[in-house]
Amino acid sequence: MSTWRKNIPQAAQDFLFDRRLDEIECIIADMAGVARGKAMPAFKFGEDTKYYLPNSIFLQTITGGWADFKDGADLEPDMIMRPDFATATAAPWTADWTLQIIHDAEDSDGRPIPTAPRNVLKHVLDLYRAEGWQPVVAPEMEFFFVARNLDPNMPIIPPMGRTGRRAAARQAYSMSAVDEYGKVIDDIYDFAEAMGLEIDGMMQEGGAGQVEINLVHGDPLKLADQVFYFKRMIREAALRHDMFATFMAKPIEGEPGSAMHIHHSVIDMATGANIFSTQEGKSTDSFMHFIGGLQRHLPSAVALIAPYVNSYRRYVPDFAAPINLEWGNDNRTTGLRVPISSPASRRVENRLAGMDCNPYLGIAASLACGYLGLKERIGPREECRTNAYMDDNDLPMTLGAALELFEEASALHEILDPEFCRIYAAVKRNEYNEFLQVISPWEREHLLLNV
Predict the structure, then answer these.
(1) pLDDT of 133-146, one tens digit each?
(2) Are 427 and 64 in contact (CB under 8 A)?
């Protein structure tokens, strides 16, 4: 057995037991969270000690364009891809026996490339560890199964269920609604088992064909890796059943949007105790400061957790998406919810991030805001005990407005890395400017003959 194969997780070893490994996919997440990289025959992997990709993959927009720079950042120098063997997992949808391995990006001197999203999250986690803290997160993933959409000019519609009817909306938590597309759910479970990914729970959400998958709490980097893998895997499972899976924040007009709710707690590395709870089981000042940091700094981070023009279509009243920074105990109308839990599990749930965000950047941004609250000892507002959906919006409501706040957020830039923030803003400005050149059907319908 190759030396590297002894270092991969047990699930990957079990997948390959008595099988001939055909291919290795060396992958890395770009700014959008898209898997980039290269595939190679398995026998070639391990012969070379270094693998290369141009660092320009972090300048690429979601449309395939490129952010423009005049300072040499667009010269496309190679970066070194370093495999993280702990991330090796099956690609069980392929025709042959294939492993995926997430790689980290380094420069020629072995330093982390600061614009790589996975490195951004690792940097934030290093700041926590320097304080003796270990963050813990638990993401919730919402997404839609939809009928194949081959013409972007046509609206997205729900998929056909086993009854021969389109998936129905307003059926949250219905077991019958989930059973409508049970075969693709079965494949998701089977793929997850082969990949060593643990699903904590799965349920029907409020939209037509909308599903939520909850993940077991744990290390933020590992959970971001899992969300990255899950998004790719769920798309592949859906394609097997003649449908698409989409992680757009708002794919269907008139339906709820899809969020990536992020539960946060922080552990004292010396004692193993949750710093959000006292020994008597009460909430601590640190818990309040973490919430205060989210309230103060999240508006500047919205461009990271709502990264596209479509993201802001989710931030509308009466569609179960909080558009506020209030916090409350067991209050789903608040953007920052404190779920019912034991003192050891006390946590705060950030309900503002969209499922369209890059999981590394969404988790990094949320943790960065909480970190600033802990360091700056920021007190939160009074707890909201009413329906916060009725409150005024606390968030920027367009990508342009969000980018203006992000570009001015010097405290956030220092936590995430100034070079990353500069390039991220340039990529998003490029995307936003390209969108502004598109004339929508709404404009043609209402303005063409009436203004």
Answers:
(1) 999 999 999 999 99
(2) no
